[in-house]
């Protein structure tokens, strides 16, 4: 990978499994995304997992995924699944969906 590839925008779908509901996980994710200047959204899924769609510079998205594997202190992350999605130029901030 060329050095400049790190700055190419990319979008990832991140599924986080474990104790990630009822522990402030989505608000924590939003803070991480905002700190890294990423856009997208996150929501709880019916199976108890959390889904985050995150977009930004490749190296910042990688940092976001590393943070999701750790989670906030109240959470217990069992596993994280990541898949690439097409970039959406309409995204302008990071939202927490209810």
Provide the spatial order of strands within the biggest beta sheet: 4-1-3-2-5
The tally of structural domains comes to 1
Radius of gyration: 13 Å
N-to-C order of helices and strands: EHEEHEE
Structural class: alpha+beta
Q: Quick one: biggest sheet? A: 5 strands, mixed
Oligomeric status: single chain
Enumerate how many helices there are, as a single number.
2
Give me the CATH fold name: Alpha-Beta Plaits
Q: In which range does the helix fraction lie?
A: 10-25%
Shape: globular
Low-confidence stretches: none
Q: What is the C-level CATH assignment?
A: Alpha Beta
What percent strand? 35-45%
Structure summary, number of beta strands: 5
Average predicted local confidence, pLDDT: 93
CATH architecture: 2-Layer Sandwich
Write structural notes for this entry.
- This protein is an alpha+beta fold and 98 residues long.
- The protein has a single domain, classed as Alpha-Beta Plaits (2-Layer Sandwich).
- The chain contains 2 helices and 5 strands; from the N terminus they run βαββαββ.
- It has helices at 25-35, 58-70, and strands at residues 9-19, 39-44, 50-57, 76-85, 94-96.
- The chain has a 5-stranded mixed sheet, covered by helices on one side.
- A hairpin with a 5-residue loop joins strand 2 and strand 3 (50-57).
- The longest helix has 13 residues, at 58-70.
- The radius of gyration is 13 Å and the shape is globular.
- The chain starts with 8 loop residues before the first strand and ends with a strand.
- The mean pLDDT is 93.
């Amino acid at each position: 990978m060329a050095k400049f590839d790190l700055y190419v925008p990319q979008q990832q779908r991140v599924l986080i499994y474990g104790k990630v509901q009822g522990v402030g996980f989505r608000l924590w994710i939003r803070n991480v995304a905002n700190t890294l200047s990423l856009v997208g959204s996150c929501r709880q899924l019916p199976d108890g997992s959390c889904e985050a769609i995150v977009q930004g510079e490749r190296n910042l998205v990688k940092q976001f995924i590393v943070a999701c594997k750790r989670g906030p202190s109240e959470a217990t992350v069992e596993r994280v699944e990541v898949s690439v999605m097409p970039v959406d130029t309409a995204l302008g901030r990071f939202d927490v969906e209810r």
